[in-house]
Amino acid sequence: MSRKISLAHLTTLDLSPPQMIRVAAEIGYDAVGLRLIAVTPTTPGYALMHDAALLRETQSALTASGIYVNDIEFLRITPEFDSRDFEAFLDVGAVLGARHVICAPYDPDLSRLSANLAALNDMCVPRGMRPVLEFFPWTNVPDLSAACTIVDAAAQDAIGILVDTLHFNRSSSSLHLLAEQAFAKPERFPFLHLCDALVQPHYTTEDLFHAGRAERLPPGLGQIDLAAIINVLPTETPMALEVPMTALQIENGSPYVARRVFEAAVKMLSCV
Predict the structure, then answer these.
(1) Which 3 state secondary structure label does DSSP give 130?
(2) What is the pLDDT averaged over residues 165-190?
(3) For labeling, which of 85, 179, 216, 259 is most exposed (least CB within 10 Å)?
């Protein structure tokens, strides 16, 4: 398969980066995404910028496996955000050869958000990385249209948008707009967060959080029209499988989840 497949850390969040890399390589993934900064107080982030031993072990695992780092995460762009505070995080990303830095919009002042995204870009590009802004239905940047507005205002060609198929489906995002943007600016969408889920007529904020952070479905086993999303993106757009399945992970372990998700994705992508 020419399309690269990456294992997002949320799928196997209890595994340290070296453990995750070894599991990904054994299953057949091409890349991984590493969560170096925790998203919630109850979930881990693996701060390689402050753990030299774990960083060395991670580098060794990458070298031995041939796996590459697709992305590092997770930067919240808040009102207090200063990209200079994350220099060590970005330096580690560069050391690992990471290609993208995932950012989340948590600033109600959208002009300041765009300016901070542009400042982050200025720190990422010399390190060989690109920032990608992920939109979430519960934030001030809830959908693709809003994300395009922020990125356009930042006025930096290297800044991308990360479409997550769950958040795309749960928001008012337009497939027509995605197709239009992907045709005009294909580099704007450097990879896709791929997962599936059941579709409902209405979602509470708690529903959005629970699916987003704890329980999704492998690609092709839910009701999201994944083929429609994938087919408007460039043919070889990499797929990052972000499929937390907490109940299954507790029962069978993260390696089992990573394999099940990979096999489902390969099967689904072969039909797209």
Answers:
(1) strand
(2) 96
(3) 85
